[in-house]
């Protein structure tokens, strides 16, 4: 695998040459500091760009063109990383060896046209496409509640810190939809091209010279952008008192979500000991939570923990019967206490490290995850894969215990069914 | 060990059938780091009524037993559960049950030989006790309840209940809380002895490894030493009528946007195409062209804002093929009407078929490019057609629009059902 980065003024081009894949993937990442009111319109915009373009004015025309290019797959995703919002546009195609000559160039041109020749007339997006996306966006926001596990995490975060980016809803907000019109959307589009920072990644069995030429010819951004906003949402206050919140909905299985702060962690602690801590607690397939809550006490079918490093959060989630709420919370708290006391042995740590090493090695079999890794290096100055492996293998019990002491429960949230329960 | 080429994919696999009847498929990769192994039995939730080898009487075990058994295989006599064992080398493990299969998988980058040996061991060493069976009931009941809250899941089950009269496809793979409560350790051993014989199972190993060495591990495994026994399983034949069970159904649930289900039940015995793989390709071609992303149907319903999500799937139940359509829509009746109308005018152009061939060829290349998806692809072939289809690309290239249009004409489009799921009343 060979990596080359080119600073092309208004954007960085990252090229990764490898014979591991029969596909070529191009990813364009736009990012800027997140603003709550812009989440909805940003989602709206990427859906619009994926629905139609000037040359292919309907979804069907677009789909037919993509299929003709041997199922070129094109898509967009929006996600938050700490204080930033990111939009990925990606293109995945087969290496020409499996299709026809000229497919790479044609596909990149097509990708370019979707992003830079939008379905716009008189400074406004196409009405018909606009209506379709509007309805879809409304429905997507409304049906968010149908996934009760996900909804419980959203409500947990909103109860923890309503004004921080960490609780912003990725789906966006119904009230923001009304302000979007075909022309404000076009203004937003132009602004995104101008003000967002851009990175372009290309991975596959590629020729650097050919790719650089193709990308330079097709992708031009005019302005230079810089920002000083740090990515990480800092946390240096220990929560004073644990908040407990219960809400109700029409569901059968109650959803428990516990939000913990990771207080005053160093960058090293966030990237290394915290990772091992989490695998031991609830991230691995034989974690303490899985063993205690599910296997020994049959209290849940799912129970896991996930660190959200850039937010300085650690989330614990479980699907439980609501009468087991107190018992489950107590068990989870006990397991966290054990972590603080260092009640895990060398063998557990070794397993957690191997779990991480395997995941790391596996990640090099996925084009998307290789790009993720280079992007994180670019964005946060994280270590490369080999360094990560070395440092992770050196994490000590003492370091894990230090981190365990800095993980503090802030809010306990339960989403439960509506039936009236005699016991309360 | 026989080498089988996969034309058009730059790839090949090795095949060997052991003396005990187990079929082994090895798919080596040179430039990947990871591996993915599945050890599977052709036993799923549909098989709940069968005859024991030495008895005449048909017995019925509780619904959901295949899935229950899958959970219980992770219980080992030495108390070390397989997850913990695999965790030592950072290896992932999992299992899953469908209507007609149960598989145990492990995947990772380290210790492939030892991990494969361990997989063959733990699936061959059941340890069921009254106590551990009882304990599992709580966990599985929570799993069933979790799915009871997923509207798509409930809708899919309702569709199958409307399609089938008596076939076990009517019943959820995990069973019901009442049924699983009846399960005993004896039931589990009965199913295990019958369906976990090597001749009813197969093994797929894909990833970075030396095929000779892997074959050696399999040959030397302590459970692979017996000769094949001929315990043939006689299963209940369901007298499933060719007609659908209930044409129209409405229900309410905690959803924001209504959902609809549509299904078309097809008796494959009435069709000209006898080869099952070929028939599936043509049926799949039909739904992709008519209801897929590049269809005029989708364009129309999108423009009329009739739906927000749309999903098609083919079910198989003995000699029936059933098309399932599920969608989210604010106008359920109008969308169902549009589907019915579309079904009345089915003609497909050559251009559409040729374009779709490109898409499928591309999809085959993409699947073989990832270790996990290549295993899943091979797994599906074995379950559906008895063996991997090696020359898929050739067969795809030969698909003929005339054959497809003839097939579409012979379908009985009236043999369909509809389900509408409305939101609960606002309280």
Set down the secondary structure blueprint.
The complex is a heterodimer of chains A (424) and B (427).
Chain A lengths: L1 E6 L4 E6 L5 E11 L5 H13 L7 H10 L4 E9 L2 E11 L8 H14 L3 E2 L2 E2 L1 H16 L5 H13 L13 H4 L4 H14 L1 E8 L3 H11 L24 E6 L5 E9 L4 H5 L1 H11 L4 H9 L3 E9 L4 E8 L4 H16 L5 H18 L3 H14 L4 H9 L3 H9 L1 E10 L8
Parallel strand pairs in A: 2-8, 9-13
Antiparallel strand pairs in A: 1-2, 3-5, 3-8, 4-5, 6-7, 10-12, 10-13, 11-12
Chain B lengths: L1 E5 L4 E7 L5 E6 L6 E7 L7 E3 L6 E3 L4 H8 L9 H6 L4 E6 L4 E7 L3 H12 L6 H19 L2 H13 L13 H5 L3 H11 L5 E7 L3 H10 L13 E2 L12 E6 L5 E9 L8 H16 L4 H8 L5 E9 L2 E9 L3 H13 L5 H19 L2 H15 L6 H6 L3 H10 L5 E8 L4
Parallel strand pairs in B: 3-9, 11-15
Antiparallel strand pairs in B: 1-2, 2-3, 4-8, 4-9, 5-6, 5-10, 7-8, 12-14, 12-15, 13-14
Helix pairs in contact in B: 1-7, 3-8, 9-15
Give a written overview of the molecule:
The complex is a heterodimer of chains A (424) and B (427). Chain A has helices at 39-51, 59-68, 103-116, 127-142, 148-160, 174-177, 182-195, 208-218, 267-271, 273-283, 288-296, 325-340, 346-363, 367-380, 385-393, 397-405, and strands at residues 2-7, 12-17, 23-33, 73-81, 84-94, 120-121, 124-125, 197-204, 243-248, 254-262, 300-308, 313-320, 407-416. In chain A, 46% of the residues are buried. The model of chain A has no long low-confidence stretch (mean pLDDT 93). Chain A folds into 2 domains: 2-218, Metalloenzyme, LuxS/M16 peptidase-like (Cytochrome Bc1 Complex, Chain A, domain 1, 2-Layer Sandwich); 243-416, Cytochrome Bc1 Complex, Chain A, domain 1, CATH 3.30.830.10. Helix content of chain A is 44%, strand content 23%. Chain A has 424 residues and is an alpha+beta fold. In chain A, a hairpin with a 4-residue loop joins strand 11 (300-308) and strand 12 (313-320). Chain B has 2 domains: 2-235, Metalloenzyme, LuxS/M16 peptidase-like (Cytochrome Bc1 Complex, Chain A, domain 1), CATH 3.30.830; 248-423, Cytochrome Bc1 Complex, Chain A, domain 1 (2-Layer Sandwich), CATH 3.30.830.10. Chain B has helices at residues 65-72, 82-87, 112-123, 130-148, 151-163, 177-181, 185-195, 211-220, 276-291, 296-303, 332-344, 350-368, 371-385, 392-397, 401-410; strands spanning 2-6, 11-17, 23-28, 35-41, 49-51, 58-60, 92-97, 102-108, 201-207, 234-235, 248-253, 259-267, 309-317, 320-328, 416-423. In chain B, strands 1-2-3-9-4-8-7 form a 7-stranded mixed sheet, with helices on both faces. Chain B has a 5-stranded mixed sheet with strand order 11-15-12-14-13, with helices on both faces. In chain B, a hairpin with a 6-residue loop joins strand 5 (49-51) and strand 6. In chain B, helix 3 runs parallel beside helix 8.
């Amino acid at each position: 695998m060979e990596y080359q980065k080119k600073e092309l003024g208004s954007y960085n081009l990252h090229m990764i040459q490898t014979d591991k894949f029969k596909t070529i993937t191009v990813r364009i990442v736009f990012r800027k500091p997140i603003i709550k009111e812009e989440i909805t319109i940003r989602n709206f915009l990427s859906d619009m760009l994926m629905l139609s373009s000037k040359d292919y004015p309907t979804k069907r025309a677009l789909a037919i063109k993509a299929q003709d290019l041997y199922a070129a797959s094109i898509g967009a995703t929006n996600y938050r990383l700490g204080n930033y919002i990111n939009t990925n546009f990606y293109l995945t195609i087969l290496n020409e060896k499996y299709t026809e000559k000229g497919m790479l160039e044609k596909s990149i041109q097509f990708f370019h046209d979707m992003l830079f020749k939008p379905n716009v007339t008189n400074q406004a997006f196409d009405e018909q496409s606009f209506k379709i996306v509007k309805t879809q966006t409304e429905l997507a926001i409304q049906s968010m509640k149908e996934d009760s596990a996900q909804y419980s995490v959203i409500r947990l975060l909103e109860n923890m810190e309503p004004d921080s980016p960490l609780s912003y809803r990725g789906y966006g907000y119904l009230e923001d939809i009304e302000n979007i019109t075909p022309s404000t959307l076009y203004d937003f589009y132009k602004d995104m091209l101008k003000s967002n920072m851009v990175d372009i990644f290309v991975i596959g069995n590629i020729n650097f010279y050919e790719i650089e030429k193709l990308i330079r010819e097709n992708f031009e951004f005019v302005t230079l952008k810089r920002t000083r906003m740090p990515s990480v949402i800092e946390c240096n206050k220990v929560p004073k008192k644990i908040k407990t919140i219960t809400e109700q909905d029409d569901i059968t299985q109650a959803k428990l979500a516990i939000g913990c702060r990771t207080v005053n962690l160093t960058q090293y602690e966030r990237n290394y000991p915290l990772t091992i801590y989490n695998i031991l607690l609830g991230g691995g397939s034989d974690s303490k939570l899985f063993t205690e809550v599910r296997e020994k006490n049959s209290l849940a079918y799912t129970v896991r923990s996930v660190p959200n490093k850039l937010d300085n959060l650690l989330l614990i989630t479980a699907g439980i019967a609501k009468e087991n709420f107190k018992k489950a919370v107590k068990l989870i708290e006990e397991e966290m206490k054990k972590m603080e006391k260092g009640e895990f042995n060398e063998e557990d740590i070794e397993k957690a490290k191997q779990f991480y090493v395997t995941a790391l090695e596996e990640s090099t079999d996925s084009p998307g995850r290789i790009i993720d890794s280079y992007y994180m290096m670019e964005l946060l100055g994280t270590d490369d894969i080999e360094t990560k492996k070395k440092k992770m293998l050196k994490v000590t019990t003492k370091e894990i215990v230090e981190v365990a002491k800095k993980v503090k429960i802030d809010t306990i949230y339960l989403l439960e069914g509506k039936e009236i329960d005699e016991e309360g | 060990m026989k080498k089988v080429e996969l034309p058009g994919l730059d790839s090949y696999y090795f095949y060997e059938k052991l003396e005990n009847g187990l079929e082994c498929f090895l798919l080596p990769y040179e430039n990947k780091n990871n591996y993915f192994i599945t050890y599977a039995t052709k036993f799923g939730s549909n098989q709940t009524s069968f005859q024991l080898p030495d008895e005449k009487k048909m017995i019925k075990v509780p619904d959901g037993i295949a899935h229950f058994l899958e959970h219980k295989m992770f219980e080992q006599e030495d108390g070390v559960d397989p997850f913990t064992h695999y965790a030592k080398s950072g290896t992932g493990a999992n299992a899953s049950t469908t209507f007609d299969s149960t598989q145990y998988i492990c995947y990772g980058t380290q210790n492939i030989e030892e991990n494969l040996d361990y997989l063959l061991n733990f699936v061959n060493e059941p340890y069921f006790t009254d106590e551990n069976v009882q304990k599992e009931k709580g966990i599985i009941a929570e799993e069933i309840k979790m799915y009871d809250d997923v509207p798509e899941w409930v809708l899919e089950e309702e569709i199958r209940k409307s399609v089938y009269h008596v076939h076990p496809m009517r019943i959820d793979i995990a069973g019901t809380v009442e049924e699983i409560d009846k399960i005993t350790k004896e039931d589990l051993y009965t199913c295990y002895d019958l369906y976990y014989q090597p001749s009813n199972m197969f093994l797929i190993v894909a990833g970075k490894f030396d095929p000779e060495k892997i074959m050696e591990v399999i040959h030397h495994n302590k459970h692979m030493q017996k000769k094949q026994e001929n315990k043939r399983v006689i299963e209940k034949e369901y007298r499933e009528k060719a007609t659908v069970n209930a044409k129209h159904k409405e229900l309410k649930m905690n959803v924001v946007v209504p959902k609809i289900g549509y299904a078309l039940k097809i008796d494959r015995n009435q069709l000209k195409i006898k080869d099952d793989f070929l028939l599936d390709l043509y049926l799949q071609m039909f739904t992709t062209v008519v209801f897929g992303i590049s269809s005029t149907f989708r364009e129309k319903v999108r423009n009329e804002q009739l739906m927000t999500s749309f999903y098609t799937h083919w079910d198989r139940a003995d000699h029936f093929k059933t098309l399932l359509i599920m969608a989210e829509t604010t106008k359920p009746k109008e969308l169902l009407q549009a589907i019915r109308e579309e079904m009345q005018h089915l003609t497909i152009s050559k251009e559409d078929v040729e374009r779709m061939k490109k898409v499928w060829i591309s999809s085959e290349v993409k699947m073989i490019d990832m270790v996990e998806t290549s295993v899943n692809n091979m797994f599906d072939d074995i379950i559906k057609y008895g063996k991997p289809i090696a020359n898929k690309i050739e067969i795809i290239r030969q698909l003929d629009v005339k054959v497809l249009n003839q097939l579409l004409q012979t379908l009985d489009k009236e043999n369909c059902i509809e389900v509408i799921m409305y939101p609960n009343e606002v309280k």
